[in-house]
């Protein structure tokens, strides 16, 4: 939430720079931690805030620069995190063996600081300012006197062309109202059925409406340009932004699903390493298995981008199906047999890759789903709100499932079953709502097409 407010106030560049500094400071200061409280404050809170600032600024910056037709490329941007997941686990294990955990944190703080020059490359705030200036110039070209003259000319020409009375059409218990002010009567004359009493009148006035429709379209275009400049230059208050977010029921349902899915997956990632160790592997081998599994996320990001580019499916559909599949795969983890070495961990590697592939699909499109609910002005607040709610429940999930595991004598079987079931159960409402709305829209389109065909035949 703080990242969204900061983005709205200061822009992408300042948010990214501050996030890189906080991330590097939090990780670097943790190497001097005298106790667990110090480590929780800096490694948990400070570096967590910096990471959220970087994550939100990256997605908002990319979404702002890409047009609507190019936003299917956004999953490729997030693929760097998956590539880091392949490299970091064995690298962390190697650094801890040679430098200890304190030295490893210091090295990773230096690596995190390299995100600062990347943040300086963003110039989204300046670009938006330039767009506002251009919009103001376009607005000045359409002064109030010019607009009044256009209205007078249009009204005079329309009066000379002739005013058409309202035409009512009744077909399949529906009435279609055609008004001469809206200039639709001429364009839909051949498509709309008319009563016998009004048919001659509409046909008689068709040429006049044809002449006025072009004028109306010109007036509509001019009015839209002026209206666009107003929408571009106006600012939305934070209160209005929050109200628009909290009043969107579909988005709130998605936030609930996203919270449970993200919290469960992060809890799973913390449990998996210890689970592999309990099955007979070493810490280093468990890290290698998890790193190999991250290649599934890279594949998922590429395949998600391809499906969105080819318009094979929608981002929300990809999210729901992949989340349900991921939850089902989580319940299979307890069936992994005992492993004596990495060479005998084929089943664990395969299952981890499959689960990470499903996980990578919904991780790749979750940002696009949020972007489909809101425009660019509300997007920073929406993504900040989603990440905040998810982040609050991550430690809660970790604490609860830690207690469950200890209660079962450090057996992860029950925890895996519960995590997988939660992912599936809380994804189903969003999935069902999506299917219902999609079916309604299809029926509406089919009804409209049938109505047009019947009217043409008539």
Automatic annotation (TrEMBL):
<dbReference type="InterPro" id="IPR036259">
    <property type="entry name" value="MFS_trans_sf"/>
</dbReference>
<feature type="transmembrane region" description="Helical">
    <location>
        <begin position="289"/>
        <end position="309"/>
    </location>
</feature>
<feature type="transmembrane region" description="Helical">
    <location>
        <begin position="316"/>
        <end position="336"/>
    </location>
</feature>
<keyword id="KW-0472">Membrane</keyword>
<feature type="transmembrane region" description="Helical">
    <location>
        <begin position="251"/>
        <end position="269"/>
    </location>
</feature>
<feature type="transmembrane region" description="Helical">
    <location>
        <begin position="381"/>
        <end position="404"/>
    </location>
</feature>
<feature type="transmembrane region" description="Helical">
    <location>
        <begin position="12"/>
        <end position="30"/>
    </location>
</feature>
<feature type="transmembrane region" description="Helical">
    <location>
        <begin position="102"/>
        <end position="124"/>
    </location>
</feature>
<dbReference type="GO" id="GO:0022857">
    <property type="term" value="F:transmembrane transporter activity"/>
</dbReference>
<feature type="transmembrane region" description="Helical">
    <location>
        <begin position="36"/>
        <end position="56"/>
    </location>
</feature>
<dbReference type="InterPro" id="IPR050327">
    <property type="entry name" value="Proton-linked_MCT"/>
</dbReference>
<keyword id="KW-0812">Transmembrane</keyword>
<dbReference type="Pfam" id="PF07690">
    <property type="entry name" value="MFS_1"/>
</dbReference>
<feature type="transmembrane region" description="Helical">
    <location>
        <begin position="348"/>
        <end position="374"/>
    </location>
</feature>
<keyword id="KW-1133">Transmembrane helix</keyword>
<feature type="transmembrane region" description="Helical">
    <location>
        <begin position="416"/>
        <end position="436"/>
    </location>
</feature>
<dbReference type="InterPro" id="IPR011701">
    <property type="entry name" value="MFS"/>
</dbReference>
<protein>
    <submittedName>
        <fullName>Monocarboxylate transporter 5-like isoform X2</fullName>
    </submittedName>
</protein>
